[in-house]
Structure formats: C-alpha cells, structure tokens
Amino acid sequence: MKRNITLIIVLTIISIQVVSAGGVGITPAHYKEFFEPNLEKTFKFYSFNTDPNEGIEIYIEGDLAEYVELSDEFFVGGGGFTVTVKLPNKIDKPGVHEIYVGAIEAREIGSETIGGIVAIRGRIDILVPYPGEYAESTFTISNINEGEEANYEIEVQNLGTKSLNVKPSIEIYKINTTEKLLTLNLPDKIINPKEILNSVGTLNTKELPPGEYQAIAIIDWGKIDTMTKIFRVGEFLIEILDYDYQFEQNRINQFNIEIQNKWNTKIDQVFATVSITDQGNFITNFKTVSANTNPWETKNLTAYFDTTGLETKRYTANIVLSYGDTTTGKLVAIYINKSPRDKYIKYATIATIIALIIIATFIYLILKIKRLSKRNGKKK
Description:
Layout: E1 5-8, E2 13-15, E3 19-21, E4 24-27, E5 30-34, E6 40-49, E7 55-62, E8 68-70, E9 74-76, E10 78-86, E11 95-109, E12 112-128, E13 135-141, E14 144-145, E15 150-158, E16 164-174, E17 180-185, E18 189-191, E19 196-203, E20 211-220, E21 224-234, E22 238-243, E23 246-248, E24 252-261, E25 267-278, E26 281-287, E27 291-293, E28 298-306, E29 314-323, E30 326-337, H1 340-379
Parallel strand pairs: 5-12, 14-21, 23-30
Antiparallel strand pairs: 1-19, 2-5, 3-4, 4-6, 6-10, 7-9, 7-11, 8-10, 11-12, 13-15, 15-19, 16-17, 16-18, 16-20, 20-21, 22-24, 24-28, 25-26, 25-27, 25-29, 29-30
C-alpha cells in the first residue's frame, strides 16, 4: 500500500537520539531552528557518564557561541541543563550555523577541572534564509528482501525568502545501466520560507529480483536537485566469496572461508563443512565454528586442515555452508605444497654440493700449479 504523507514543520525539529563516546553521552543529539531577529530560545539537554563518580564538563563551540549561555557547566555522574540562545538582530551569512554543545569527561579538583580524553557533542542548527529561492534536499531508501516494498523518505527545506513550488519524483534503474525500471511522481507542493516538505512512502519493488539497484530522487523547485542512492534487494543466501587454497604439507593449516549474508535480515548459526577428495577418493573432512551474520555482512569462517601424510599435489575441496534449512556449496581446487623448511633443506643441500665442487676444483688447480712449478724448476 502506497503512502504519501506531506508534513509542514514550522517550528523546531528535535532529534531524540542519544550520542555517546566512551563513557560520556548527551541527549538529544540535534535541534534545528530557523533564524529570527533577536530570537531568544532555551533548549534542554541531558548529559551522563557511565561511571556515576566521574565528572562531566559542558562547553560550547561554533560561530554563534558568543550568543549562548549555559545553565550549568559541571556535573558528577550526569544531569540536565539548558542552553539559552540569544540571537542578534541580523546574521549576514546565509545557511546553516552550527552551535556545538559538548560534554567531556572531567575530574573536579577544588574550583578547577581537569579535562579527560573522551568527549561528545550535541548540536543546535540555526538556519539563516538565503535571499530569493533556495532549497536543500535529502533522500533515503531502504534495503529490502525479495518480494518486499522499499521505504523512501524525501525532505525538502525551503531555506530561501520566497515560496517554492516543489515537484518531486523517484526513478529506479538497474545498477550501472540506463535501463529505467520504475518511476514514481509525487504530488506538487507549495512550501513557504522556513517550511519543510517531508514525504515518506513505499515503492512498488515487489517484482524486482535480488541484486543492487540505483534510486534517483529528482527535486524540481525552480532548479533541479538530483540525489542518487544504491539499495539492495536481498535473497536468503550466504555466498562464498573467497577461500584459502594453498596449504603446507605435514602440518595443521588454517582453512579460511570468506562469506557474505545476501539477505536483508540477520542469519544465525552459519557454519561450513569441508570435504577433501583426490580423484573422487575421500581423504578427510572438517567443520568450521558457527557464526552469526548481520544483513549484508561479510565474515570469515575458520577451520583447521591437517595435511600430515598427504602428497604434495592438487586436491578437490567441497565447501558446503549450512544455515537454517538451507545449504550453499562450492567445489574448488586446493593445493598441498612442500614445507618451506623442506625447500630450504633442498636448496641448502644443492648449495653445499656446489660449494664442495668449487672447493675441490680450487684445490685441484692449486695442486696442478704446484706440480708444474716443480717441473719447471728441475728443467732449469
């Protein structure tokens, strides 16, 4: 079912997420406010330290920091505080001005604080309108599994001083081609200065086969903004991407298998069974440990292959991945090679023989020269 929901947001947009680094966190992560002459507004924040006995120092940064007042600058463990912004009558530079509200681990000693190494910042954006027509847009689209519809979101902010007639659309293409698979034209909308158009809904992607696709959002507001995103349609598959194929004779070797979850959902308890054969004759088999895989995650499975007593030559390995009620297999060639130590002994032996031949030749020449010298002496 398609949904087209247009939201006009005039007042402050608040992000309710928490940002954190190390043991320090601050919430909310983000406020947004349009500039008005002499605007005075108070924003609430809360900062915390995972160690309730450690201090937190609050600070302000940004090009509008001089217009900001803090209610509190130091806490032990955590606490709420306010940030009051008192803007001037005019800000010459249009665009987004960022005020950073920082929290840093600190330890209080008397009336001073010693800053720590872990810090995190929240943000207050002050949007100063551009003269005339101006907009900024964002576009997101979700990864999906085969047979599902993709969720999208388009946001257009009118950051100018004039109203805009916005005409958004979305086009879907095969990756790295010009073959258009789908077009969605969204309703036109007039957005006034300081207003935001937010359009969310779903695309009819149920018939798309597994693979990667290119989604292009086209925003016409007098100028054309285009935003391209890659999204994936997943299939219930763990794919074998790579594997070890060179092993050393007469030792226990690591056998690494690189896999990827091609499903847009977590797949747990993935393991591989490897069977080694020589011209159809079974030699040995072994298993890797199990691993859990997140959507689209690439991971390494490791087993151990004992080559003791096996000849140095080509063998066949049948790699079978097991997950859920499904298996994925790959038949590959592997090679057992002589130990570098054996090669070293071989080369050392050859080098020793050559050295002995050289020495023997040298001794022979010396003795021959001496005999010739004696003969010449007797003739005189």
